[in-house]
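Quarterly update, task 2.4: 3-methyl-2-oxobutanoic acid-bound model.
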Amino acid sequence: MRKIYIFDTTLRDGEQSPGVNLNTREKVEIAHQLEKLGVDRMEAGFPAASPGDLAAVNAVARAVKDVTVIGLSRSREQDIDAVRQALIGAQDPCIHIFLATSPIHRKHKLRMDKEQVLETAQSALRYARKYFSKIEFSLEDAGRTEYDFIAQMVGMAIKEGASVVNIPDTVGYLNPSEYGAIFKFVKENVPDVEKIQLSAHCHNDLGMATANTLAAIQNGADQIEGTINGIGERAGNTAIEEIAMALATRQSFFNATTSLQLSEIARTSRLVSKLTGMVVPGNKAIVGANAFAHESGIHQDGMLKEKTTYEIMTPESIGLKESKLVLGKHSGRHAFREKLIDLGYELDDLQVNEAFAKFKDLADKKKEVSDDDLLALIEEKLVDTVEVFKLETIYVTYGNTSVPTAKVRIVKEANEVLVEEAEGNGSVDAIYNAIDKATLEEVTLDDYSIKSVSHGKDALGEVHVVLTQNGVSAQGRGLSTDILEASARAYVDALNRLIEKRVTFSNRENVKL
Ligand SMILES: CC(=O)SCCNC(=O)CCNC(=O)[C@H](O)C(C)(C)COP(=O)(O)OP(=O)(O)OC[C@H]1O[C@@H](n2cnc3c(N)ncnc32)[C@H](O)[C@@H]1OP(=O)(O)O
Ligand SMILES: CC(C)C(=O)C(=O)O
């Protein structure tokens, strides 16, 4: 199996993401983690960019031991000197020199013709060769460069002592068959190409960075360049974790592997996200929060029966603990029952069905149903109370300059419909006055408390009330994503419990008689 060398440029091209600025301490922390991940080479920065970056590259060079540390340089002596200074103390230093080769860059940016580009790169390589035994040369914007000029530039770089030649798709313009074809062409047409390693470096402007990099591997690339989480200039670079997992998951197809410790991927991704401030989208391949999460009932059922139905790789392989079955409105009974078992509840079919119906109602109102929401629902369901009064609807009008009013519709003993309206000194007071009017129960409210069961704006609110009637007290509990509805439910629940107590007491007295 072919080994593909991993050139990580999180600390250079990744840092070129707008808004990202890593200080020396942060660069060193990421570098240590990249070393644990097992990258072969790491580009620590662009030393000529600023004294701060030069110092940071130097700190990385001194900090890591088992990785080649690289500094980027234009084809200019002053940049090469900055890399020399930055890599003092590195165990295995390497300079990365680049020059653009495409007609657009030649004409508008460099204002050079082909001959000048060739000579500028040649003299930079000659100068660098005096100080570095390892040199990578990049043909910036190779993706839009004429084939014959690519061949000429690669041939020159080989002659001038480059050990790696990189053929970047700098602006993410190519598709996989076009990018792969360049590698095939170079392999077949450039003399002595076997003396060097060929490298792929892709950008994600059209979302094809990973596909293009894999195409390069299939066509002979020895090294791939990329960043953790795919961060980088504009739409970013090839995500290293995607290449590593594609090669690992489809090993027999690509017949290529890396030396990465795959189980360090998740940790590395989290660290890079934290220190760069670049949040990983939930649906990002491999490292997004949803990459191993399943929400829909049919998928969850499949996962519970056999994980390979919906997972082509395991979360453990990238260092995560386990897959997640997220309960939401698309979930089914299998996953719901499994979650209840996890939470310590073994319910019979009837109880599961009742709780499931309540859960679906809640899931229609909430994006995700948390464990706390479920516990609250289940515990409410498990206590059987006789429902003399059942709250059907409430309607509240409130304005800070008007008197709050509430209208309730309550069904008594499953057949009598009670509808009443009342005012109050607040919305909850108006609701409670309307319930009193409808039920004709005379009670005093001894306690009212409210708390949030879960987090966020759509959290379930839980209201507790204590009602007293003729010296007998009962508490009630109401749950809803709306606190007024939770308040009404708690009140009606307490009324039902009071009535239950009343019936129990009178039965006891009858027995005594
Ligand atoms: C594809 C890539 O990702 S390449 C890396 C991109 N990264 C960066 O640019 C980050 C670091 N850059 C910087 O800090 C600054 O651009 C510096 C310090 C390198 C240079 O700053 P300045 O001297 O002010 O030049 P500025 O950035 O405005 O212009 C770039 C100059 O370099 C030239 N240039 C661009 N690429 C190269 C190259 N590979 N080799 C030689 N010269 C180059 C441009 O033609 C331009 O030259 P000019 O001033 O004669 O017109
Ligand atoms: C310096 C080179 C390799 C680069 O970053 C690019 O072409 O995107």
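Highlight for this quarter: The chain has three domains: 2-276, 295-382, 389-512.
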